[in-house]
Amino acid sequence: xxxxxxxxxxxxxLNTIPTHEASLDKMWxxxxxxxxxxxxxxxxxxxxxxxTDTSVYNTAPESGLRITWVGHSSLLIEIDGKRIxxxxxxxxxxxxxxxxxxxxxxxxxLALSELPPLDAIIQSHDHYDHLxxxxxxxxxxxxVPFYCSVGVGQYLKKWGIDGKRITELNWGDSAMIGxxxxxxxxxxxxxxxxxxxxxNETLWSSFVIKGTKHNIFFGADSGPFPGxxxxxxxxxxxxxxxxxxxxYGIYWPDIHMGPDNATNAHLALQGKVMxxxxxxTFNLSTHAWYEPAEWLLDFARxxxxxxxxxxxxxPTEVVAGYKxxxxxxxxxx
Length: 333
Hints:
By secondary structure, this protein is of the alpha/beta class. It is built from six helices and 17 strands. It has one domain: Metallo-beta-lactamase, Chain A (4-Layer Sandwich).
């Protein structure tokens, strides 16, 4: 089974199925929902601080697969001798301005300067909580290559990344990281844009990362859609799926999954172990900050899914059933 390129209508990319993006017609009910919200969407107790023991990176993971969850969708993936950073966001706020917008619940557990040498950086799409200007600028004088969805490269170039280091991928396109790690862009159900204008003029993607021993899936942002089964049939099974569980809401069910749909996606992908991402770092919805993880535990138990939930900043080898449940230390209920 092959994956087709994303369809376009004029300048705009299209999802594989009709998708409502919580656009202007939903703004008033969404505003009322936020104003009346009583959930603990921002932690009452300060999270962390979390600190990465960077000496761990001096030794390769015994299993070949180790993950450091920096927060949200920022992951340092060590897979079969390669180090890959996904959607790196080190700024305090995910917004057009560092004076306003969603603020981090905890500081990044390691500084950008403390990162070990990288083989690749993956940029899934252009939203502020995934594509961070100041973080990208840090890499301007480095030599690490970037792999991104079609159209996202314009921002990387604008912020100082040499065009020779940028590989743009459409759905179904593949590239090699080094000579033995295969990266393929695959569909997601989402949208793009960094302002009121220009929406969906750059692409959003998920990614299959296949090393010499392990095969993993980075879901980035996506709502529920039949494409997960297609990806599983074409590229699965996966040793690890990394799927978003946070930022869901009743007025935007098409563009984020939540724990129930995420666990269904994991099964459709033929995943062996599931890691939740896109939660516990920024206030991007009206649910309690810890609710996605709490609900995930229940859904995974009922669906017989092995979870992998490392503590922020802790380099952890992927082991089925590893659940640190670190968030429970900070819950106020």
